[in-house]
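Supplementary Methods, section 5.1.

A reviewer requested that the exact input to the structure prediction be made available. We therefore reproduce it here, unchanged from the version used in the analyses.
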Amino acid sequence: MSFQQGLAGLNAASKSLEVIGNNVANSGTFGAKSSRAEFASVYAAAANGMTTGNIGIGVEITGISQQFSQGNITTTDNSMDVALNGAGFFEMLDPNGQTYYTRNGQFKVDRDGFIVNNQKQQLLGYSANALGVIVPGPAAPIQLPTAGIAPKITDEASIEMNLDARDEITAPATPAIDYNDPTTYNNATSVTAYDAQGKETALSFYFQKAGADAWNVYVTADGAPIQIDSADFATVTFPTSGGAPVTPATAPVLNSPAGDIAFDLSGVTQYGSTFGVTSFTQNGYAPGQLTGISIESEGLVMARYSNGQSTSAGQVELATFRNVQGLQPQGGNAWASTFASGDPVVGAPGQGNFGVLQSGALEESNIDVTAELVNMITVQRFYQANAQSIKTQDSVSQTLLNLR
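The structure derived from this sequence is encoded token-by-token as follows.
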């Protein structure tokens, strides 16, 4: 019987060394999780069902369990590297239509614009419409746009500024304003607008004090005067407190070559301080070409363009399981779902119990090499002890055979 006990110990120690060796080998694998061998004693069943006092016949490995604790996050110089901080797995679709789950966020973009890993598996997520709005629905491979972004015409502009209440009146009797004569106006500023083709138009705004709490606003487009609400200029009047304008009550419309532009003046004030523009915005932009991709913490895949615009191209979907120990390890640092793991529970990063993403970073393995080396020494002694028990049993058997 002792031979079988020692042999069982040798087999268990050998399997445990294989697990430790695999851990050490994958200590530098991003997203890898450590494994451990779990043992149980073995007893022979008695004929009468009673096992009290029976001597065991060895040990067996009941399972190899993986430890899904969080690995350290390390930064990289690649914006397509994504670390998952918290619970969940990336969902990857292989060419055969099988879905796998991984913690390794080393992603790339293939020739067709799909986000893939080194195994050519495609990252799954939610798609976005032409306006960059995420469309809920079943997850599908995320495909980045290859074309540039179309221009947007300027149809709204807004300014926040202060006109100095201490300025002198500059409005002459005639002509109304001379753009080449700074004495006929008090202040000026400009903004770039865009037409339907994305061509730029330089809009210049001239502010002329016409009286107490009253200012005339003139506008030129590329140096040529344009009308405001079909008039040569608009008059802005302020309350005695100098706060938001009393008139115009609504945003006047600039009749520019780029198109009609609603000009919001509600952010203009008239206080006794120097002239200053704190914000001047417009909602148009020129066409642009794709220059880069980034992935936000909530999983939004953002496409960046040469005109400074960015738009969502999709959103990464994560999956988790009720029993992660039931996942079946696969090659390529991935797992497959099984009956024991249960069906995946899916959602976006940051929602519920799902972790968040960090672009330009990767999750290191959670393997402690020092602990594995200590375990290796322990298992080696375990192996030697079982070998010694076999050697001792062999010596005892030899003694019996030598009896005369």
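Helices lie at 2-25, 369-401. These observations are discussed further in the main text.
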